[in-house]
Structures are given as structure tokens and as C-alpha cells.
Amino acid sequence: MLGAGIFLLFGGAGCVPGLGSSGSKVPDGGVFRSSDQGNTWGQKTQILAVGGAQRNFSLANIVTLAADPSDPQALYAGTDGAGLLVTYNLGEGWFQPDQLRTGYIQSISVDPHNKCTIYVTLGTQLFKSVDCSRSWKNVYEEARANTVLTSVAVDPNKSNIVWVGTSAGDLLKSTDEAKSWVVKNRFKNGILKILLSPQDGNHIYVATPEQGVYRSLNGGDFWGDDINEGLKQYGGAFAVRDIIFLDASKEWLLLSTQYGLIKSLNLGANWDAFKLLTPPGGAQIQAVVVNPKNYLQIFYSTNSTLYRTDDGGEKWITKKLPTTRVPSALMVNPTNTNVVFMGSKFVEQKSGF
Q1: Half-sphere exposure of residue 277, counting CA atoms within 13 Å on the CB side?
Q2: Which of 2, 160, 173, 233 is the most buried (most CB within 10 A)?
């Protein structure tokens, strides 16, 4: 049963960007699910409805996908314009929290110890739910109109600690579950993403879109960009598009950059580039994800192709996309790693990649 505060789309619901009625021909956007590691796909965009016409979000542009570490059936999709979409049955049916029905959701973080506690960034605001998306509270708001919140991360070791990054480069920290905040650092470049080590809560990585990666090994009190030294050999590596763990248990890092995919097995002291099928800088990597149970299996997408390796990058397999749109987000189910989700977005393409 859906609790109070969850928005069900009725036949006469108002217009929301990216949402529409299910007809004879459904646009090929939204979210797709594969049950065989990306070999075949099915579109999963049905919105739970009570009466009236069936609705879907097949026109929505997906910005980010987030899994729930403690609920393999749950998935959260942040969109550009259609707010937040939530499923608790592997995408068979979705709903929208009524406070987050529109807007740009750039970052989502689920508390790994409290599955009903979720944080999302919405423009200048940070929202928090403690009841599995039934209700949401605004727990932080950026005062500068030209600055937005770009990343949120819950400490995987201590649920009371929450980090937020802004487009102006401010890194904020809360130690009381987002009740109060302090600025821990101000970077020269806007923050793209915050990555927290599940092995050591003092290890924090901040990726930027133009100045590489910063690292703190003491909980954010001191920051250094020395880990960028190893990136200088790769042209375009400072233009980071994503940072994830190649293997979270070992704190191995994986960067998606303008150059390509680059890994570090020693906290960023050294970096090595993957040999991809496309030349360095030859294709824009839109999304990347690693099988959480097997770091040798990596997926990444360009504007028109899905790539997969099962041997750590020695060989790559190309897969046909289920959409004419750009695959903008990838997520592997944390329990059943045969299940892969893909989000898509419309981009006016100017190249063949």
C-alpha cells in the first residue's frame, strides 16, 4: 500500500514534463531493464495509476539512477524536469512523491543502514525522506540563486554524517543527519560528485568537471590534489564525468573522463587507463557502472553504444541499445547482478559515436 504523500497519476492529472498517456506507440525513452547482463532489454516506464488512462514516463530524460543497498527491489530515478521516480518492484511500477513531481534531480543517496532514509538534490534544495518516500522535508537550501546542489552522499559508516557539494565548489558536512551544516572546503571548480569509502570513513573523494579529483584522508580537514599527478599523462583526464569504485572493498577507483576510463588501485597514487575500443577522447562516455560482486565486469555507454567487459578490460563486447536516445545512466542490481538498469535522455547528436 502506498502511504500518504505519494502521488498517483490519475487520468486527469496535470502536465508533467516527460510524462504521458500510454498509447499504441510509446516513445523509446525513460528506463530500461535487462535480466541478462545487457544482452536484451525491456522498457520499464509504467506509472502506478488509479482509474483513468495509464501513464508512463517514456519521454522523461533520466539524469541519475540509484539502487538501495538493503532493498534489491528498490530503484530511484532522478530526471530533468519530471522530478523523482521510485519503484519498489524492480521497475514494474513507478510512483512520484508529491513534493518531487517536477524539477531536476541530479543526485540521490540512500542510507545503507536505514533503507527508508533517502536524500535527493533538487536545484538549490536538499530533500530528505525517512519513511520510504512517503513524505519529504527540505533540510538545506542554498541561498545563492545561481548555485545549485550537485551531489549528496551519506557516510556508509555513520548515518549521521551527510555531505553535500555545490556547483560553486562548496563542500558541506552535517554530523546530525542534515539538521545543521558547516562548510568543510571551497574548491576552485564546481563539485561533480562526492565519493565516500565504505572501508574508512575518513577517506573522501571529490570529483570536479575541470580540475580532476581531490582527496582527503582525514575526514575532510585537509585536501590535496596530488592524486591528479598521475592523471597528467592522459590528455582530457582532468575533465571528469564520474567517479565510482572499481572495487569498494579495496577502495579501487574508476574515473570516467574526457580521455576515457582510468583506474587506480592505490587510493589515487597511480592511475592506469583502460584500453577501449574507441581511441582516447574518441567517444563521449555517458555512463559507467561496475558489477558490485565482480569488479572484472564493467559496463559503459557512449551516445549510441553499450560496451561490456567480463575480464577487466582485456576484451570489450558491444551491445545494441534498446533506444534511439542516449544511455545516460547505468545501474547493476546489488543482489542479482544479472539485472541491469539503463536510463536514457534525448540529446541532439552531432557525431556518429
Answers
A1: 16
A2: 173
How far apart are alpha carbons 70 and 294 in whole angstroms? 18
- CB burial class (10 A; 0-12, 13-18, 19+) of residue 126? buried
* Strands, sheet with 326-332, edge to edge from the N-terminal-most edge strand: 42-43, 31-34, 340-345, 326-332
The pTM for the full model equals 0.92
- For residue 98, the SS3 value is helix
- Inter-CA distances, 147 with 123, 166, 169, 206, 319, Å: 8, 7, 9, 17, 38
- The pLDDT tens digits of the residues spanning 209-240 come to 999 999 999 999 999 878 999 999 999 999 99
3-class SS of residue 100 = helix
For residues 47 and 9, the answer to whether their CB atoms sit within 8 Å is yes
Closest CA to 81 of 130, 29, 117, 118: 29
- Cell 536516445 sits on residue: 325
Q: Which helix (H) or strand (E) holds 175?
A: none
